[in-house]
Amino acid sequence: MDIGLIDVDGHNFPNLALMRISAWHKAQGDLVEWWWSDLVHYDIVYMSKIFSDAYSPDVPEPMNADKVIKGGTGYCISLGEDGKEVFDQSKNKSLPPEIERMFPDYSIYPQFDFAVSMTSRGCPRGCSFCH
Predict the structure, then answer these.
(1) Distance between CA atoms of 80 and 76, rounded to whole angstroms?
(2) Could you report the per-residue pLDDT of 39-58, keeping only the tens digit for each?
(3) What angle do CA 106, 93, 84 make, to 5 degrees?
């Protein structure tokens, strides 16, 4: 299968979910690459977003994929009546266990020479804009 990845937040910091998705698909023998054009057909395109639209606006879904899967905390956040961000747990999707257990594919972010696997344990800062 041909798999496309979209890091909606950009490539300023590695996206752990996309790294694990990439590793799983490569282990299945699939071709995995960054989505770059509607001129290329993909069987599945994964879109991952960590931050809300206030910090990282969503991008249009690709038109060239049989299936588009969106995930990440950024798709679970909306603005409440008081103007503060609200996290909707019912929209939160977990990765399947077989993907969650994969060692991340660091090759998709060759510009970084550090590990990010511990980021999923949480941050001690408790910023009001972060979930």
Answers:
(1) 12
(2) 999 999 999 998 888 888 88
(3) 100
